[in-house]
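Progress against Task 2.4 (sequence-to-structure conversion) is shown through the following example record, which the project officer requested during the mid-term review.
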Amino acid sequence: MSPTPTAEDRWTRFRAARDEALAETHGWLSLTSFHWLADRPAAVASVPGLWSAAGDTASVTARPSDGLTDLATGLPVDGTLTAALDDEDSLMWVAYGGPDGHRVVVELARRAGRYALRTRDAGAATRTRFSGAPVFAYRPDLVLEGRFEPFTEPLHERISTSRADVPGTHTSVGDVVFALPGDPREHRLRASQDEAGALAVTFHDTTNGTSTASWRKVSLRRPRPDGSVVIDFNRTINYPSAYTPYGTCPRPVDANVVDAPVEAGEKQLPA
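Structure tokens generated for the chain above:
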């Protein structure tokens, strides 16, 4: 009978899965460019075809000799493809390059009502040289008991993102309240919530800009019936913008600042 895994064992498995996800063939580490689409068909640097966006629809026009493959059908693009996305949605749309014609995937994204392209190159150095995100050693004392205090109504707040030209909105459903070890102060961070009830907190702390990225995120399981929650700061992760300049990642709401070091989870990449 195998021994029951410890909390640190589970964290080690979490870290392995996290690094594997970061290094996916066309994952976040493969991003190599970001381009807003014009309202008339135009070339985009290094990407075959002519691209445009008008109203709610984006278009690409290409010939088979351009080497674009429609990822939905697996067929060469011959003529014009169109797509319509809701705001904040993305579509892995077409591919080109490499021996199999799929080295670079072109992602269509809609942000703040505008369409953009991002290229995802499986051969990007940020991906091929990646050997795992740097992290703090496991800290059992930073697995904390806290409480969730829901708001009467969700609070919609304007926020900035990792791109100055992409505004964002954060929907807060309540406060996650906790104290750090050796510090009697009560900290409050506003949380979002997914359809399954799990919480997510995006926050600053005093390690930002030295040992950690400018902001990070930690996810929590849904609150217990009595409102209690577990905040495992060892599972704090970076947003993609910590690894690539081509992300559109949300920054924390103004209230989400921990005036203390949270020395757990992912660190910033070495310069």
